[in-house]
Amino acid sequence: MFGALLLQRQNELRLAELKLGSLTDVIVAAPALRQRLEQLRLGARSEVMTFVKAPVTIISGAEDAAVARGVRYRVLPERRGWLAGEAAHR
């Protein structure tokens, strides 16, 4: 029963990817990552969700432009970076 549900979900994901394009990006080179993040921020219409690894750096001002357009940001920081920030404020 679980196998059939998993297969159904995988098929739904494949259909969504065909309709929308790829739902995930795997990027390993830093310049390519910066460029892709900039494209995503500039093209976002409603929401940007991201994981952030320590140390946290600001890439560009695209976030401000997106927020001005009504785009919401949800960020999940790496625990190590979060704890380092807490230690700096003590």
The count of strands amounts to 2
Mean pLDDT over the full residue set: 77
Derived from helix and strand composition plus strand pairing, the structural class reads alpha+beta
Which regions contain 5 or more consecutive residues with pLDDT less than 50?
none
Q: Tell me about the biggest sheet?
A: 2 strands, parallel
Strand order of the largest sheet: 1-2
Radius of gyration: 17 Å
Report the span from N to C terminus. Answer: 52 Å
Give the strand content: 5-15%
Shape: extended
Report the order of strands and helices. Answer: HHEHEH
Architecture overview:
The chain is an alpha+beta fold and 90 residues long. Helices cover 56% and strands 13% of the residues. Strand 1, helix 3 and strand 2 form a beta-alpha-beta unit. The longest helix has 19 residues. The radius of gyration is 17 Å and the shape is extended. It starts with a helix and ends with a helix. The model has no long low-confidence stretch (mean pLDDT 77).
List the helices and strands and how they pair.
Layout: H1 2-20, H2 30-43, E1 47-52, H3 62-68, E2 72-77, H4 79-88
Parallel strand pairs: 1-2
Helix pairs in contact: 2-3
Provide tags for this entry.
two-stranded parallel ribbon; 2 strands; 13% strand; alpha+beta; extended; 56% helix; 90 residues
Short description:
The protein is α+β, with helices and mostly antiparallel strands.
